[in-house]
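User: Could you write out the 3D structure of this protein bound to flavin-adenine dinucleotide? I've included everything you need below.
Assistant: Certainly. Input first, then the structure.
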Amino acid sequence: MPDNAGRSAAVIGAGPAGIAAAVQLRRFGIDTLIFEKEKTGGLVRSANLVENYPGFPDGIPGPELADRFARHLLSSGASVVSGEVLSLEYAGGSFAIKTEKDQYQAGFAVIASGTAALRPEGVEISRGAEPFVFTEIISISDLEGKKIAVIGSGDAAFDYALNLSKKNDLYIIMRGSEPRCLPLLLERAHSNRRIEIIRRFDSRKVEKYSSGLLITGKKEGVEGESLTTDRLLFAVGREPATGFFGRGLSKNIDLLSREGILYLVGDVKNGIFRQTAIAAGDGIKAAMAIEKVISRV
Ligand SMILES: Cc1cc2nc3c(=O)[nH]c(=O)nc-3n(C[C@H](O)[C@H](O)[C@H](O)COP(=O)(O)OP(=O)(O)OC[C@H]3O[C@@H](n4cnc5c(N)ncnc54)[C@H](O)[C@@H]3O)c2cc1C
C-alpha cells in the first residue's frame, strides 16, 4: 500500500450520501477517491420534485438537485473515478477496490451505493418485449408523445407517472385497489388528465405488439384482460446495491464497522427511510467519524 493510503478514503457511489461524505472528507484534507458508474448526483435525479430537502421552500426538480450535488463534488477536490466498482475487499490492513480498468487501495471505505430496482415476480416478459421494458426512469426520460404504463402503487410509481406525464400519457397499473403513495401524489395524479389509474390489474404477461407492448393479466378477478402501451416502467421496489461486496468483506462488515474503518451510508442501509437529507446526513457523519479515527492515530 502507498504510504498515504492508510489515511485515504474510498467512497463507492456518488449520490447524495457519497457526495456529502466526499465533500466533508475533503474539508478535513483527507485524500478521497469516489467511484461512480453512472452520472454523478445519484437516484434523486429520477425524482420529479423534491419538496423535503431543506433550503428549497418551493421544492426543486430532482435533476437540478442532482446537478447541484455533482457540481459540489467537482469543487470539493475529491478524485472522481468513472466506472463501476466490481469488487470491494478488505485484506492485509486495507481496502482493495477493483474496477474494470484498475485497482485502488484505501484505509477507509464508505459504501454509498444506494439501491437497485427490482422486477416483479410472476410477470413473464417475452424476449421481443424486453427492449421496451424499464426499471429506471432515466432510461426513458426523453420520451415524448408516447403511452407509458407504470406498474406499481407506491411513491416512486406516482412520482414517475407525474414526471413522464409532462410529455406523455400514462397508465399507473396497480395490483391492489389502494395506492400506497403519499396522499398529495395521489391527488396530483387524480387531477392530471394524462394519467389513468388502473386498479386491481394483476399483470401476468408482457409481449411485443405492433410498435409497443401488450400487457395481459387478471383484472377485477377476470383472466385474459389486456391493454396496450408503448413502454413499460416497473416501480415495484428496490434492494440494497451490494453485489460488489467481496466474501471477506461481507463476513467482516460488523467488525470493520466497529473498528471505524468501514461505513455504510444512505439508502444502501436505510430500509424504508430512503430520503436525500438522511443520506446526506449519513455521509457527513461517516466523514466526521473517519477524521476522529485518523486524528487518534
Ligand atoms: C422517483 C423517486 C423520487 C424520489 N423523491 C424523493 C424526494 O422527494 N425527497 C427525498 O428526500 N428523496 C427522494 N427520493 C429518494 C432519494 O433519491 C434517495 O434517498 C437518495 O438518492 C439516496 O442517496 P444515496 O446516495 O444513498 O443513494 P443513490 O442516490 O442511489 O446513489 C448511489 C450511487 O451509487 C452508484 N453505484 C451503485 N453501485 C455502484 C458500483 N458498484 N460502482 C460505482 N457506483 C455505484 C449509483 O450509480 C448511484 O449513483 C426519490 C427517489 C425516487 C426513485
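The CA atoms of residues 267 and 275 lie 7 Å apart.
User: Perfect, thank you.
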